[in-house]
Amino acid sequence: MDWFFNFPDMSRSDLREFKKTVDFAFTDFSRTYGQGIEDFFEPLLMFLVWFEKLFINTPWPVIIFSILLLAWIGSRSILIVVGTFLSFMLIGYFGMWEDTMSTLAIILVATFLCIAIGIPLGIAMARSNKVQAAIVPILDVMQTIPSFVYLIPVVMLLGIGKVPGLIAVCIYAIPPIVRLTNLGIRLVDKDVLEAADSFGANYWQKLFGVQMPLALPTIFAGVNQTIMMALAMVVIASMIGVKGLGLPVLRAISNQYLALGLMNGLAIVILAIIFDRVTQKFGLRMQKYRNEGKD
Amino acid sequence: MNSKNILIKVNQLYKIFGDGDKSALDLVKNGMGKDELLEKSNCVLGLNNINLNINRGKIQVVMGLSGSGKSTLIRHLNRLIEPTSGEILFNNTNILNLSSKELIQFRQNNMSMVFQKFALFPHKTILQNVGYGLAIQNISKDEWSEKAQKWIKRVGLDGYETYYPGQLSGGMQQRVGLARALATDAEILLMDEAFSALDPLIRSEMQNILLDLQSELHKTIIFITHDLDEALKIGDRIAILRDGSMVQDSDPQEIIMNPADEYVSDFIKDINRARVIQAKSIMTPTNTKSSGATVKEDMVLEDILQIMSDAPSKPVTIENSKGKVTGKIEMVNLIEGMKRPKSLGTNITG
């Protein structure tokens, strides 16, 4: 009856062997291909460095003006523009300007990457049930696996730095945009699609003329979520060498600096709120036709 | 009927929804009905051996209750639904053999459709909606917006070009739907319960707009409805479907005078016969002029009654559209014609 009370597990030595095999196999893999993969990401790294420098080296009034302009274009709301202005002044005044610019740079690149990869993926999922069935479990894993777990292989392959940080952020932030693109396209009214069909629209005409425009508010909710999740990853990404607002937070945790942690944490929150409000307003404006008076 | 006038010919069309539709097809061909098929093979019988000739330039109404397969049938004509077996000839080419590229061409050039729930593009303006069928043919914007403009005007929506569909009432939205369908200059117009979602007054108005347009355009229109009054008002021919099978396909007068079976009788039970039956359906054929007034063949009994009430004993003379005498009607015929036939029962309710 021993098996009844003690789980019949693998012997310790077998388990050790198993872990060793996996570790060695991956180490071998990263030794053999690591350099190649690093070279592959070299242009991305160059771009990241350049982009971050651009943000940091541009005089602050120019940056603030550009941000306010974008906030206005996106939201058309004076309140949001004023709020944005005050927030950035406060951030700068408390000496977090440079870190905020670094964070802004990586968030923007990560969001752009997520959109560039996520929207086509979502379209492919909406087109075929088989593709959807294949991708959904992958997204589930990406969203539930603790970020530290996939940091390990990423760091083993690429070391510490901006690129592995960016990849980690993207893995965490891409699922919403993929899911919501898929959902948005699938939710488009069947009658309307039938109408497009009956007039002889081809696949691309339906996709870009009918499905995407009607799915846009949902897709935009996905973009919004992706940005929020990317911001949430900033602290974790700083553990593997991403500069920005996450790094001081990390230092504050290890040294119990309450003020430092709060200041930088709140700066991340402020960024999140600004991004959220501006993109949400923009999303609402895109569906203007839905809000105008109905009979 | 002259075969030259036939534009669309539907031959032995079957549609079975569900897995294993091919084996179910054999069952249906051997006479299995809709309910039995559903029980035996879990397939739904959509269309059962439909044969239909649609004349060029006429309005063919397809009528039936919900679930009778009328919307399924109309979607076969532009292949929004693929049949299980059968053929659909358009000018002697079987449209079921078209490749997907040819099908797109066919839909762009030959057929357009009006939908029950309008199915307008909510994110496009009225102008863009009406021009849609042309815009996807890569026609320049100037050209399609000019044509769209013309049709918007024609259906009486001048000035609404920059509105979105959500801002218009149901009746106006369906005018947009109609204009969108007409803008491509397609020869065939498919109308799937196009006016069913509208309230009675607007519906009647839309029917008049359609008849008005038709007298000028002479399109071939396939019109789906479940409303007999509508069918009688606009149909040149009426086909009646029941459980996916064709029960009767004939002249509207013929349907009222000689319903093919109980199902059709049920349909026509409640209509106002005096307002629908025309002189030619009840007249006694003769070449000689009678003593009373002279009326046209297509005058309805109600109007003849009005005329005869002045001189009830004198039979009226009936003449055709060319002024030739074709028959006479006496008061007795009139009463007989308005009376409900025995097959429809005699109980009067209300």
Protein model, in words:
The complex is a heterodimer of chains A (295) and B (350). Chain A has one domain: Orthogonal Bundle (MetI-like fold). Chain A is built from 14 helices and no strands. Chain A has helices at 2-5, 12-57, 60-75, 78-93, 97-127, 129-144, 147-158, 162-186, 190-198, 203-232, 234-238, 246-255, 258-286, 288-291. In chain A, helix 3 (60-75) packs across helix 13 (258-286), helix 5 (97-127) runs antiparallel to helix 10 (203-232) and helix 12 (246-255) runs antiparallel to helix 13. In chain B, 39% of the residues lie in helices and 22% in strands. Chain B has helices at 21-29, 34-41, 70-77, 100-109, 126-135, 141-154, 170-183, 200-217, 228-234, 252-257, 262-268, 273-276, 279-282, 301-308, 331-338; strands spanning 6-17, 44-55, 59-63, 85-90, 93-94, 111-114, 188-192, 220-225, 237-242, 245-250, 284-285, 294-296, 316-319, 325-329. Chain B is globular and about 65 Å long. Residues 346-350 of chain B have low confidence and may be disordered.
Brief synopsis:
The complex is a heterodimer of chains A (295) and B (350). Chain A is an all-alpha fold and 295 residues long.
